[in-house]
Amino acid sequence: MTAPDTRRVQVEKVIERYRRYVNAGAASLHKFMGAEAVEWRAEGSTIWDSDGREYLDLLAGFGTLALGHRPPAVIAAVREQLDRMPLASRVLFSKPLADLSAALAELLPGRLEKSFFCHSGAEAVEGALKLARLHTGRPGIVAAQGGYHGKTLGALSASGREVYRTPFAPLLPAVTHVPFGDADVLKEAVGPETAAVILEPIQGEAGVIVPPDDYLPAARAICDRTGALLIADEVQTGFGRTGAMFACERVGVVPDIICLAKALGGGVMPIGAFSSTPEIWAVLEENPYLHSSTLGGNPLACAAGLAALREIKARDLPARAAALGERALSRLAAIRREQAELIADVRGRGLLIGVEFADSDIAGLVIAGLLQRGVIAAYTLNNPEVIRIEPALTITQADLDRGLDAFGESVAQARDLVADL
Asked: Fold for domain 33-63+316-420?
């Protein structure tokens, strides 16, 4: 058996194990999209599969890899902590946890300075919802249609797509969904029993939906008037992704609670957080074990988070995302003008960009065409007509241009395939 034959057998073994032991539907979806390779190693914005084929990553782990794959400073910090103490005793004080909490407080807007660390964005949302209910003594949550906050029970209750919600009904009670971007409807929905309004500053999984500039300020005013708390879900938009450190800062809004994850771990460790003001946090301090996690805020994750924050700040990645995003939006707008029958819209902020196609089948063809050209992208979970362009904030201009060239070629290929049908 030749070496290529051996590698193919190994790939087939991985796919079969996915089918048998992980999820047969996921295995079929990978194969349908032409993503049958096995990822093997990565660096920066490049991934190599087990056959040595190179891929340009325009997805960055759905925004997790803001610093790219294997950022040296984060890797070094985690290795150092690994040699010292991988997990905490949970009895003594943890320096990595204290240091990360202080560093995050320096970056957060307003007086958001108290933080709880967990493992994911969904867990951060769960904690934020609990904190809002505990602080206000109210049961109600108002969320947006199309919003995506995670798939644990409370987070799913606030998420706004029925295809994910319906199979698990009944979900958390007293959750109301309103159209995103409509402040008048939001005002009608928030009342004396509302604990919190939870919004993404830009809806990521809904298809990179950017609301009017006055929407978040209006939501802030509505919450102030009614005594509800404003929760900003910045799991995907935080840490420079949209051209500002936090997307809510673009419109001058400071939320009462902020949810974070993805880029916080520097692309090396999973970590999430929710943060708030000392006044709101006080309800957790009389009994600090009302909300707890055995492994949340562990030393390895905190070491990664601290190194990631330092890198993002030192390299001014929000400004870099703004500049690269402006160029990418301009190029994608030009592709849209050339392919107006296929592309309905191009929108976004910074390096969170959505390209909306006439239907999801065309988007699927474009993703497959990108894979053929060694470029990784994906559609948004709540809107499969939209392909996201969400690379590392450290991607080079040359690599971004190369990816956009491949995107244009893939759209043209999809047009020709559709014309032949």
From this structure: Aspartate Aminotransferase, domain 1 (3.90.1150)
